[in-house]
Amino acid sequence: MTALFSQTFFLVLLGAVLFGASAASVGAFAYMRKRSLLGDALAHASLPGITVSFALTGSRSIGVLLCGAFISCFFAYAFLEWVSRNSKLKTDSILAITLSFFFALGVFHLSFLQHSSSAQQAGLDKLLFGQASAILPRDILLLIALSLCIGVSLSSLYHRLLLTSFDKVYARTLGIHVQPYDIIFLALSILAIVLGLQLVGVVLMSAMLITPAAAARMWTHSNSRFIVLCASFGILSSILGVSISAIFPKMPTGPWIVLSASIIFFLSSFLGSAQGLLWTFLHDRRLTNKEEQENVIRSLFLLEEKNVNACIHAEDILRYRKLSRSRLAHILRHLHKSQFLTLTSDEHISLSEKGKVLGEQLTRRHRLVETYLAEKAGFPTDRVHDFAEKAEHVLTEGLEQEVNAQIASPSKDPHGKEIPK
Amino acid sequence: VNLQFSLDEFWILLTAIGVALNCASIGTHVALRKMSMLGDAMSHSVLLGIIGAFVLTGLTSPIPLFLGALFVAICTGYLTQALSSRTGLSEDASIGVNFTWMFALGVILLSFYADDLHLDQECVLYGELAFAAFHQWTVFGQEVGPVSLWTAFFSGLVLAIFLYLGRRALPCIAFDRNFAISSGVTVHRWDFLLLSFLALVVVSSFESVGAILVIALLSIPAACANLFAKSPGKMLALANAHAIFACIIGFLLARAVNGNIAASIAIVAGLMFIIELLCLSIWKKKYLASGAHTSTTQNVKELF
User: What ipTM describes this predicted complex?
Assistant: First the structure.
């Protein structure tokens, strides 16, 4: 447990947290640009830069290697742009080509170095999978400084970057030059990718960009909240990953950071309040419930309309609606509780005043839509019912008046039934 | 160049070509469906499949590990699609999320069991084509060639049958999905089969050539062919021709400078693509400048 409180631990933690936050915010913009996998391709493309700069300078200082990586990422991006401008290939193909070609260059050069030179290059391939435990304190200072740089540039250019990420045409009409921002964004993403090499490595780097953004998307549709959430998820996963590998010394840091981010993502995809599965499921169920209840009310209304003094039983409703007996009983109980209908002792069902109002409203909407479809949209009369059956539940007050105005307040629907006022 | 091959080198080259043909063939269809990066995802998640199969069964023999890898690769495909369709996540983000957690979990499990399994993460990425010949398949006491060559051969055989049966349905689904549905093509079944065969090819190839060359061979020959081919059939043939060519030249290059064979094949394939695209764009520019196209426009105008 002493490892938990050592000075190096805090330094690594600080570096990882700052890096996690800045990479995740860069990833947020990449997500908005729909270019999430670009990070994956660029991360792989950094390898030849690392090997070449090592071969040229013979130095293993991280600054030199990262410079090389930065340059080769730029080359990879230029290659990508060149291919997409000169061919009709799809983005996914181009990404796969760039990724594999540049990575192969790196691997080839690495194998060449391994055969020809001494064991000097040992450690170079550690960048492939990241090795947080081997980071030197001065490297961490570099990591911290550059992460802060990314954070500061992102926050100072926030509005412009947002505009140019979302809608280039609109940004141009506002008089913003889009291209400089594209280049700034590219430079920031490459910087983030290159910084991540020591911590999480080439292969997993893309997760630092993509996963927090994907998780944040599950919670919010607002942009500012999205980016703040991204950064917090990045920070949280860094803290978890670094702590786990500090408590259990055998554990690799990078993969644990990525796995923590992924766990956050899966929790979010389930619980998220904007697009999460659970929320979507509940929302769908609420809609289905509402529709079923309204259908029962409308059936009752129609039955009473046909025969004012009829004794209506549950059986009568079942003739109109495809519901199981127990389901109908449940709905009736619910409607009774919210005072839409009255149940007498011998199981006669009748609508209450409140229920009549709702039934009338639904029927009016149903028949208005039918009339509209037949008169204005040219539907055959026998096919308007199914559509109106759905529309009656979703029509709002305003829309209802709009439809009514369009067809000049008719009194009868296409089937000759009266439209309630 | 010394063209005197030893038997081992012959086997290596043959294995590379076998793998390349498989990858290029399925790669053509994968590219038409815009799923190239899914191949990338699968080739990474294979690591989890192998280690997961080992952890669950305790076996180190190749067949359970192969099945584990295949299962996880297919799951990657389905999880990616399910995630993006259920939660509205964009497709590429969904790919990025899934393969990274699988790879990360694979690396973590590997750190526990590295001593028991003769596998390291570098090997998953680079492959060990150079050692392919050492691992011979023995039938009735007779060595009949490298195991990886036979794996490639058998999966190639099944793949060929699949591609023959799907020669109409697959391009049809790729170009116009709704038309395919309305013509009664069982789209979902073909989707599943394509995904499974992509997984099969990735898993059977990656052991010998590594994840990166798998992606290169899936995407680059198909992209080269895409520049020229006018029909899916021609594209398939062209992609295979490119794959064979890249293997031979790449192998010779690696042999000449004593480099990694898989990487060298990928580089040759990439260079071929660059040269072809360069020539094509220069030719197009000349064609536009020479005014050859204006006569066609005039011809069309005369028609009306």
Answer: 0.90
